[in-house]
Amino acid sequence: MRTVISISILSVSLASAALADDEGGRDVAGEIAALDARVFGDGFNDCRLDSIREIVAEDLEFYHDLGGPLMGRDAFVDSLETNICSSPFRPRRELVADSLDVFPLYTNGALYGALETGTHRFYERESEHPNAPTGIAQFSILWLLQDGHWQMSRVVSYDHQAAD
């Protein structure tokens, strides 16, 4: 009986992994990883905010355990401009290696979204010690497919801790 249960669990795990990597030829995990790099590379790190507007849902909900909620794309982009791009410390975000997980979401067998989770570190650029680590946090992002294009729809940024 134990062997049957183990084989069943293994089969479900392998099927889930296959779906994450290939849904009708889509590399969902790769697509989401590229979007993560775009949001945080272009948007957060380089302040090219026009580059990310098209992938942020108009009705974005962003929840931050220290900064509170932001509702809407405009509020999110304005917050990046004010709190990140205009900051004398110009923080930089870096994804922690091997922390990114992507979980495809289906309805009746059709891909409609993906949940991205991971850990990121933050660094200060303008100080006596450029690139000094300032913190680490967890994040979850709900990506929804809208007319074949991914939209960052819901974000939770939490468990912010000071750097070691």
Structure characterization notes:
The chain is of the alpha+beta class. It has one domain (2-162): Nuclear Transport Factor 2, Chain: A (Roll). The chain is built from 4 helices and 7 strands. It has helices at residues 2-21, 28-45, 50-53, 73-85, and strands at residues 56-64, 68-71, 92-95, 101-107, 110-124, 132-146, 149-162. Strands 1, 2, 3, 4, 5, 6 and 7 form a 7-stranded mixed sheet that branches. Strand 6 (132-146) and strand 7 (149-162) form a beta hairpin. The longest helix is centred in the N-terminal third of the chain and has 20 residues, at 2-21. The model is unreliable at 2-23 (pLDDT under 50).
Number of domains: 1
Q: Which stretches are low in confidence, meaning pLDDT under 50 for 5 or more residues running?
A: 2-23
Distance between the termini: 47 Å
CATH class categorisation: Alpha Beta
What is the level-2 CATH architecture name? Answer: Roll
Measured as a percent range, the helix fraction is 25-40%
Approximately how much beta-strand content do the residues carry? 35-45%
Main sheet summary:
7 strands, mixed
- Which fold name is given in CATH as the topology? Nuclear Transport Factor 2, Chain: A
Number of strands: 7
| Secondary-structure element string | HHHEEHEEEEE
Structural class: alpha+beta
Give the integer mean of the pLDDT values. Answer: 87
| Coarse shape | globular
What's the tally of helices?
4
Radius of gyration: 18 Å
